Amino acid sequence: MNRKIIMKNINTNIDIDELIAGYCSNELSVNEIGHLRDWLNLSPDNKKYFQQRLQIWFFATVTNDKVRFDKEKAFELFLTRKAASLQKQVFTEKRLPLIVFRRIVAAIAILLIFAGAGYWLGAGRVKDLIAEDVVMEVPFGSRSKMYLPDGTLVWLNAGSTLSYAQNFGVNNRTVNLKGEGYFEVVHQKKKPFYVISDDLKIHVLGTKFNLRNYLEEDEARITLLEGSVKVNCNSVSQQEFYLKPHEQIIYDRETAIARTTLTNALNSLEWTNGYLFFDKEKLPNIARELERSYNVKIKIADESLKTFRFYGDFSRTEQTIQEVLEVLASTKRLSYEINGKEIILKKK
Question: Topology of domain 274-347, per CATH?
Fold first, then answer.
């Protein structure tokens, strides 16, 4: 079922889905852009519908190790979300042949996901079309891979959120991150790339790095694989750092002090391949990571356990939560109880 624009004092009946497709592929005329803008201004639901279409066309989600773009799945998701959003709107209906819409969705999704050019080039003419941010949220128990409109690759870990303006790439390239993300930033000399995450601001021109900044954890970490980045800690001390490959910044949230250290940067990417890597990690942070990865709730019953640190390397796709707990218990420092999705860690 398709949406059409119906507006007072306008003698026209325009297919909104075709306009959105034209917007994404940079093929709209000035008049068509005006029609699309007028339709968006009719109601918040129209803006939400438009935002959903954009997300589908340049966002692909994966939860397994074989990452690829599936145009058939993207089309099915498009139809599902579209049907769910057809509520209390002023529009008329007509059926677009399935093969035509399949071709539109597949072509535009491939263009935007792998090239990234169609959306932001088109947005150069309609950068103020809508003001809402694009928001990507990853639930517990999963991880996601996506490409931003400029072609930058982003992995998002469980329990993470990434947001950016609809006109990303037009005047600037700034994203906001809560949680953990791995970035392979496309170089654009005149448009540097910024990641803002609570007290941290990262400035890059083109590089590969991992940022872990869950607000419930006592430390944030930025690890550089390639290139260079400048990191500003927006605390009282206003610290500023320049990282080189295989260097890491550890930011203590309680003291608002950061320090740099050498590290094996590849370890910070283990999670993108479905692994959990702990290197002298405190038990509370391990517990929170297991909660996000396995969608469980973990309680540490003994306060003294919270100072313990552990090493570990696990496969979240091949090992169950109980198998991970068995390894931790084998250190003779703790025991555990499992009640459904609730786990209690006790001192041994």
Answer: Phage tail protein beta-alpha-beta fold (3.55.50)
Overall fold of domain 132-271: Jelly Rolls (2.60.120)
On the CB side of 300, how many CA atoms lie within 13 Å of its CA? 18
State the pLDDT at residue 280: 81
Cα 100 from chain centroid?
Answer: 30
DSSP-derived 3-state class of residue 169? coil
Strand partners, 147: 153
Provide the β-strand partners of residue 336.
345
pLDDT of residue 172: 85
User: DSSP string covering 44-69, please?
Assistant: HHHHHHHHHHHHHHH-----SSS---
Q: Which residues of 290-327 are buried (b: 16+ CB within 10 A; e: fewer)?
A: bbbbbebebebeeeebeebebeeebebeeeebeebbee
Structure tokens at 304: 């003294």
Q: What token pair was written down for 200?
A: 């941290």
Domain residue ranges of the chain, discontinuous segments joined by +: 1-130, 132-271, 274-347
pLDDT at position 167, please?
82
State pTM to two decimals. 0.63
Q: What is the mean pLDDT of each run of 10 residues along the chain (348 residues)?
A: 41 63 67 79 78 53 36 42 39 38 40 35 36 81 89 93 87 93 92 92 90 92 93 74 92 87 91 89 92 94 89 88 91 90 91
The HSE-up count of residue 61 (CA atoms within 13 Å, CB side) is 13
| pLDDT at residue 26, as a whole number | 57
Under 8 Å between Cβ of 308 and 283: yes
